[in-house]
Amino acid sequence: MTGEELRQWVTDNGFPAFRAVQIGDWLGKGVTNFDEMRNLPADLKKKLQTSCYISVATIAKKQVSRYDKTVKYLFSFHDGECVEAVLMSYHHGYSICISTQVGCKMGCTFCATGKSGFSRSLTASEMLAQIEAAQRDEGVRISNVVLMGMGEPLDNFDNVVRFLHLAGSQKGLHIGMRHITLSTCGIVPKIYELAQCGLPVNLAVSLHAPNDAIRSQTMPVARVYPMEQLLQACRDYFETTGRRVTFEYALISGVNDSDACARELGHRLRGMNCHVNLIPVNAVAGTGYQKSNVQRQQSFANILAVNGVTATVRRTLGSDIDASCGQLRRKHLSKGGQSLGNFQ
Asked: Is 84 among the catalytic positions?
């Protein structure tokens, strides 16, 4: 609930409005049950317990990288469904990559998440709970959030927008919108809808190819929204929000990493206010994909630079802990981990 929704609920149930402020303060402190709200009267606690719940992300499994202290979490929710999140440490603070759905419908061939199918979307509070659980567990303050874990955020539009409002609230996590990045495979109508929300979030678009022919081989969404249509939506997003768009490009050896691909991509993106994030593809069982070697990665970046397109090769974090989202959950399910819905 937003602060106003909480106040309305409190007064509708016959309690004074100031109780909503007290409840909000306790939630802001990260309490996980209503009994911890010590200054509330017993009748209000009872009403909360019978009518409401606090979303809690329980740590089902945790992995810590020996190389860079990146933390991979498998979180479970009240119904037994599990999602993944990754906590990363940078010089500017802590960032977390969270999930927005249990599984994914998009079917990108290089992604571990989609190989387990789709179960359900997360609520806004379940997204918040991932951040709160990681903060409690590691004793840190998270300042940057990326919606790039399991699921397609724009396929869960209303809950994601509610999450953005709650995360940015002073009574919530108080994380500035400019420190939140939403990643999408490119659902064009929703990009326009997001731009109209007036939220200065960063948009990252999974491109992964220089043209529709290659993109449609790995990303079924390309068959619905052609690349030129997607790129125009990104141009319009920048014009509406003033936020530069980042294009994610997973370099797959022999598929999309040739000099010809780089030149074509550079030509398409020339003149756009954008940045290309080159990502050596993660090895996912069953795909047969291999990441491009270091020389190929650098050559690709250099060709983009010649075309006036800024690009960086993403630093690999957590390579020893299945940090690519979807892999830890697949292993958990294959070993008989509990999960309801479509994954029993």
From this structure: yes
Catalytic site residue from 82, 104, 234, 325: 325
Out of 81, 84, 152, 248, which one is annotated catalytic? 84
Q: Is 325 a catalytic residue?
A: yes
10 Å CB burial of residue 22 (0-12, 13-18, 19+) is: middle
The pLDDT of residue 324:
54
pLDDT at 325: 57
Q: What is this structure's pTM?
A: 0.90
Q: Name the amino acid, one letter, at 240.
A: T
Handedness of CA 111, 112, 117, 123 (dihedral sign): negative
> pLDDT tens-digit profile of 270-308?
999 999 999 988 765 556 789 899 999 999 999 999 999
Instruction: Tell me how many degrees the CA angle 157-186-191 measures, rounded to the nearest 5.
Output: 50
In 3D space, the residue among 219, 291, 298, 300 whose CA is nearest the CA of residue 258 turns out to be 300
Q: Smallest Cα–Cα separation from 304: which of 275, 263, 341? A: 263
Tokens of 87: 């906590």
